[in-house]
Amino acid sequence: MTSPELNRLFDTEQFRASGHALIDALAEQLALELQGNASLIQWQSPLDAEQAWEQEMPEHPVLEPHQLSAWLQQEILPRQLAMHHPHSMAHQAAPPLPLAALADLVASFSNQAMAVYETGPVATLIERQLIRWLSSMIGWTHGTGVLTSGGSQANLTALLAARQTIDPHIWDKGITTVRGPLRILTSALSHYSISRAAGMMGLGTEAVIAVEADAKGRMSIEALRQAHQACIKRDEHVMAVVATAGCTATGSIDPLQAIGEYCRTQGLWLHIDAAHGASALLSTHHGSKLEGIALADSVTWDAHKLLYMPATLSAVLFRDKASSYRAFAQDASYLFHQEDDREIQDFNISARTLECTKRMMGLQLLVAFKLYGRQGLARLIEHVFLLAEQFASLVSQTAGFELLMPPETNIICFRYLGKQALAQGALNRLQANIRQSLLHQGLFHLSQVSIDENTWLRCTLMNPYTQAVHQAELLQHIQQIGDELLSS
């Protein structure tokens, strides 16, 4: 019989009461954030914040279960970046759907460590169903794949599979089995995870060759041809071409059809990093922007971006089933039993992913599809794309501002020029200082990006509650802060 002390750790009634109080507190916080009545961020420098936060590890309880909700409201929620606030515009992390977050609680509670089917049976079935749905939206009849903790892991997994197509002995004997260096061709605006993956795989970051992008931020197909031919002349093996559908910097989508056709004719593995843009496939209005995505050998798709899931929830998808097994070729007798038939092995997801212990991450997305359907999620995507178009129009029409390019998704890059001509360095510093001032005052959360040595302010309009009045307010604050900085 367990002791009273142990029973306290798993007390059902405490769980019930604390859960009800916590949901009430979060619902109140959600309402405040959506209305813009909560603090966006209470800025402190990291060092000051850590000094104020640092605590001794409690040897004994310092908090009673009935105090948990109040403690979270007083100590945790005020220190967060308010993701549901309409002034939160910096990054591609979504303000998660509230009911999806509830499903995430169920996933945490059930704790299905889905290394193999028997350790997470329903989690495995959910994941396989979601992979089939996502693959079908790409246009694949027999596509497969796995869910991953983030797009960086998905990109790495896809590139590991691509590497094995060069020489199946690489897994055991290393890249020294290949005569000549391996190369990855990708856009100059591709995500840093591509270069990071090359470093992790032992190829070296210099194995990633940046292909020129055009004025709209899209990979130049002619530059791709030239880069490929140059590799051939140098006796270098192009392991993969990585196209981007919704690049992080500008939201631009590479010409997937042309890139795909070129890769097919040249026998090159095509990976499409569609972490941000793939969700547009749900929309009948915007899905055509990804025409040609079905030509890919592998695709990365982040649900914690435009499918509005809690982070992190991504997928790496493969057109060919056999390709999904190439990334990892390890034996683990305590998990993968040789006597299991192939049918059972297909359900053992850890054979195809970096993670062994993998949480039930698909439940929240399944719940979203069940509650809102493809059309409901598509309307959300279409709404924020429209917000981006409206904001880009406002920027273009407002004196003193410059738009980098019309948005193709929901990411807008722009800058404040001021009332006088500035040298490039001074103009770049102005953007960085404006962004910092907005953040430190808790007014708006923007990001910034450097393209061709020019610094641009960057908005990612993820929140459907960010309306025209907030967009106008942002430009007013930028102009006011910018003029004050220039005058000082």
UniProtKB/TrEMBL annotation:
Pfam families, A to Z? Pyridoxal_deC (PF00282)
The highest taxon in the source lineage is Bacteria
Cofactor(s) annotated in UniProt: pyridoxal 5'-phosphate
Which SUPFAM superfamilies does the protein's record reference? PLP-dependent transferases (SSF53383)
Listed A to Z, the keywords are: Decarboxylase, Lyase, Pyridoxal phosphate
Family the entry assigns: Belongs to the group II decarboxylase family.
Protein name listed in UniProt: Pyridoxal phosphate-dependent decarboxylase family protein
Q: Which organism is it from?
A: Methylobacillus methanolivorans
